[in-house]
Specification:
Blueprint lengths: L2 H4 L5 E3 L2 E2 L11 E4 L1 H5 L7 H13 L21 H31 L5 H26 L7 H7 L2 E4 L1 H28 L12 H21 L7 H24 L1 H6 L4 H16 L5 E2 L5 H22 L4 H24 L3 E2 L9
Helix pairs in contact: 3-5, 3-8, 4-5, 5-8, 7-8, 7-9, 7-11, 9-11, 9-12, 12-13
Length: about 350
Amino acid sequence: MVDSLKKPGFDEIRPGIKVPAKETILTPRFYTTDFDEMEKMDISVNEDELRAILEEFRADYNRHHFVRDAEFEQSWDHIDGEKRRLFVEFLERSCTAEFSGFLLYKELGRRLKNKSPLLAECFNLMSRDEARHAGFLNKAMSDFKLSLDLGFLTKSRKYTFFKPKFIFYATYLSEKIGYWRYITIYRHLEAHPEDRIYPIFRFFENWCQDENRHGDFFDAIMQAQPQFLNDWKARLWCRFFLLSVFATMYLNDLQRSGFYEAIGLNARDYDIEVIKKTNDTAGRVFPVILDVENPEFIERLDQSAALNTKLAAISESQAPAPVKLLQKLPLILGIAGHMVKLYLMKPINQASLVGTVR
């Protein structure tokens, strides 16, 4: 089998080591924050719940879970062409997102060790989980003759600075949407084992429980910091982060719908289900959630996805850079217009549920 079939369209830093995907507004981001502000947080109002979550982390239910078995030990060259490219992209994006979480949580654990040992231990144990996930995904990439140099990724990626409250909004949603993504795929493939084209999907049930526990931790922190939830600015920011997470997933997945087709899923239907489940879950802590049941919500996401597909086609074209820019501009403005209108849609008020320590 020719090498181009094994590694379609991927540049390599050195043999077998993939050049990381180009950073765009839709790729997984690496974060840093104001560690001094984080050290000063008072968590006493919800310390009992945080200690209970810490015990869950210490129990380490998945310590023996991420072990490759005999099913991995075979050739995967039958997954080829475009399907192979999309599958490698899925593994890379997932690995990058998990590794991003590892780096952030590890640094928070180190910085908070002396001022807040409870939070520091929680962050260190979450970084343990994320490292396992990233390593498992990177090893899966090697079955397709490629892997990521995570050390190179650490040094080469740009880091986005968020204040602590924004870190909490973003990581909470990242963990909860990760739960719903993994469990939805797992349940589909449990019902349709003929679509499980690669063994990594068997691990998703336990895997997503790590994501769920991490999300519960950030839920508990925000419940301990009511100033992050109870004013008008929080309402605006929660809407912004919900829309950002949903739109990013939707545009990415519809652009790569072939991957979902390969495992028997319709990307659009899958994303709509994940959005609705994540939105409902966020309503347990956020003061507002989005009206995702309004037909206009999905209609505008569909229109944005169509424009994004055209953007991708322009990027792949051979036109000169200035011409590409002129071609892209109306599409970018169109997507921005849809996002503004989605943001301005009347949200669903959850204020009566916020600020109550469960």
